[in-house]
Design brief:
2 strands, two-stranded parallel ribbon, mainly alpha
């Protein structure tokens, strides 16, 4: 209903378990801005892929990485940093490939 009325949906709250449901209900080309002190980018945590430590990873399963901005992160671990850096490198390759094929 919100999108049909050309309005911008905004989800505000601290309960991470509802975030995936909200994201699944919007188009995958949506731009998402997240305010969080932690990256919450683990594949799973305590054998649960929907754990609070996996929220942004679940969002990135639905929304392309280039459409996600995370503000306020102050805590990362090395595994997550390496995973994010790999994603950035892949995005750079995609951009370069696109530019190259566009020029030729």
């Amino acid at each position: 209903m919100v999108l049909q009325d050309s309005k911008i949906p905004i989800g505000i709250g601290g309960e991470h378990s509802i975030t995936s449901g909200i994201i699944k209900s919007i188009p995958s080309d949506t731009f998402v801005v997240i305010f969080d002190a932690h990256l919450d980018y683990r594949q799973s945590y305590e054998q649960d892929i929907y754990n609070h430590a996996c929220t942004i990873k679940r969002i990135s399963d639905i929304i392309p990485h280039e459409n996600i901005v995370i503000l306020g992160v102050r805590s990362l671990n090395e595994i997550i940093i390496n995973d994010v850096l790999k994603k950035i490198q892949n995005m750079k390759r995609t951009i370069v490939d696109t530019l190259y094929t566009t020029k030729t």
